[in-house]
Amino acid sequence: MAGHTLPESSIDKPDGRRQFRHGFTLIELLVVIVVIGLLVATLLPAVQTARDSARRTHCANNLRQIGVAMHHYHDAFDRLPAGNVTRSAGICYGGSPGSAGYPSQDGANWCIALLPFLELATLFDRYDSNDFNEAPQNEFVRQSQLSVYVCPSDAGASNSAFPAPDRPVRSPSI
Question: How many Cβ atoms sit within 10 Å of the Cβ of residue 33?
C-alpha cells in the first residue's frame, strides 16, 4: 500500500491489524445529551410538586398561627377581635359623601389587633389607636407587608401592598 497514508486516528499493529483510537463520536455525544435532557424533563414536575407542597404547608402554618393568635386574643379579652371598627357608619374607604377618595374613619381591625399575639408587638406599638387607619401616623403599620397574612402561592404575593393602591376596595358579595 505504497503511497497511501493512514488516517491519524488509526495505528498499524505489527500483526497487520489496525487499531483505532477510541473517543466519543458526535452521535454518541448527542445521545448522551438527549438522555440527560429526558432525565431533567422527568424530574422537573417532581420538583414543582415538592415546591407546591412546601407552599401549601407554609400557608397552612400561617393559618394555624392566625388561629392560635385568635385564641390568645380571646383568652386575654374574653372576646374575638372585631372585623373592623368604624366611627362613621356607611362610609367605606374611597367612598364619598361628596368627593372622591373621602377617607373613612376606620379604627383597628382584626389584623392589627392580632399583632401582639403574632409576636409583632413592636409593630402594634407603632399603631395609634386614638386615630384612624388612614391617618399619616398609622401609615407604616397599615402598609407593612406581613408574611403571616399572605400565602406564598398567592399570585403577586411578593409585591402586594395593604391596602393595594391600584385595586379598589369592594365589599364582598353574598
Answer: 10
